[in-house]
Amino acid sequence: MSQPMKEPMWLSQRLLDDIVFDILTRVPVKSLIRFRCVSKSWYSSIANPIFITAHFNQAKSLSNNNHNGYLLYGSESSLCTAMFNSDRTLTQNSSFEIPFNDMNVIIVGYCNGLFCIRNNCDFYLWNPSIKKLKSISITRFSMPLPRYTLGLAYHSQNNDFKVLRITRYRTVHSPVAEVYTLSTDSWRRVEIPIELLNETRSNGCFSYIISSPCVFFHGALHYIVESIVETSDVKFILAFDVNDEIFREIMLPQNLLDGVDSFDHLTVFKGSLALFACGQALDEWEEKYQISVIWVMREYGVVESWTKISGPMIWVERFIGRFCGFTNNGELLIETVDDLLMSFDPESLYKNDFGIPNILCEDWVSDSTWIDYTSNFVESLLLLDGTNV
């Protein structure tokens, strides 16, 4: 009777390595940082770009299974995350110390575990989970006295991150667009099609990009552009596809807020690009009140699919100070002018005051300089294979 063939030693070792690799992709970041001390091989394996990518994809998958979402808020000294519970309460998830000691730190954006932050005139990519800070090299196209806006995006095709900077200079009519790519640590100039510029002003220059945060959605960064043409304002969405690096125009719905001047905020509502428009008006007794509406683009890129999903919402007792986004179940998340955080269901009209929960950072609302909402907060090893610059 013949003996069963033994499995080659190298094959057994490879299977074992694959099993360990798979297990480690599911391990929390803090534990992996400690595990690097186990051996030289573990140290190099955990810092390997292939493992970092696999761990990142696994973390995204697990985070997407949480349907409550996260609140992100930053002060001058710390960044905190809080998880939305099904009973409309908040539970602090993590707290990170911002790696600067001065008061000039501004959080520009967040995407897939990385933050883009500004400290005075310097810009950085920051992964708070592993306390890694990456300086973004100075663009060689810089000129004095610029006005600019930034957006952070994830390039899924190349597993890379990009920063888009659109700048207006006082001495140059047309805006300048530049893209920073993390993998190459370099900037490139990209062209904004002149036909888009000529549609806004005859000299090929829009007045400004509205200061509300840009939205990364459907593989593109989205900004609201406003231009004053003669006596009227023209607004549209300037979208930058991070895959082909091409700008496109998306027109906004007409008569956003029934003739009331509004501040507009791009966001995502239940998986669709959306617009929150809010303005101030006077009633018949000359008393001020706020009015707001929600527009949703049912089919991305199709202007005709803009749909107003709520009638005008009237705000009398508490005015909106800051719009923070929509939760996964479609509730507005807003900060009132008296520094209270609340959610509002536009369908049931249910309001929920979060107040200032004791479980969160002390003075977390009154001291916050930045508040945002994300459906998934990913703790990752991104930037671990690089160096602090």
From TrEMBL:
SMART domains, per this entry?
Answer: FBOX (SM00256)
- Source taxon at top rank: Eukaryota
- Residue ranges of every copy of the F-box domain listed in the record: 15-54
Q: What's a Pfam family this protein contains?
A: FBA_1
Recorded protein name is F-box domain-containing protein
